[in-house]
Every structure is written in C-alpha cells, then in structure tokens.
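[recover] target loaded
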C-alpha cells in the first residue's frame, strides 16, 4: 500500500472515531491531539480500528504517533511495506 492509500483508509477510520471531523482539512501534518481532539480513549479506538482495517499491530513500547502522517508511516512499517 502506498502512503496515500493508507491515508485514505485512515480517513475512513477517523469518520467512525470522530464523525464530525471535516476530512477536507485533514492532511499528513494534522496533529491528532491538538487539531483532531483525539483523547486517550479515541487514540485507543483509532489504534484498534486501524489494526483491524490494515491487518497489522502497533508496536508496544514506541511513542504514540503525533500526526496523521506518523500513523500512516507506522502502519506501512508494521505491514512490512516500507
């Protein structure tokens, strides 16, 4: 999967987690906490939904992603597609 394909899939996940999010304003640099108001519960739901959608696991012990782009990069890396 390309970074853009992961990004599009991640936006689908965001519509479930944060249904009122204006996806037209979301890009790779969008900050999860500051701009999308993702709290700890939403972050866990985002991770679980992403793991299911992309058939991967977020690594334990690594810092949480700060931006949408970092989430995309982690998904690609964990799927072994880098």
């Amino acid at each position: 999967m390309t970074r853009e394909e992961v990004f599009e899939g991640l936006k689908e996940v965001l519509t479930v987690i944060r249904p009122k999010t204006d996806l037209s304003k979301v890009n790779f640099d969008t900050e999860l906490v500051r701009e999308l108001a993702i709290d700890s519960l939403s972050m866990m739901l985002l991770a679980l939904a992403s793991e299911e959608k992309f058939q991967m696991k977020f690594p334990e012990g690594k810092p949480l992603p700060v931006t949408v782009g970092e989430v995309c990069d982690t998904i690609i890396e964990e799927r072994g597609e880098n």
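[recover] notes: Helices lie at 3-17, 40-54, 68-78.
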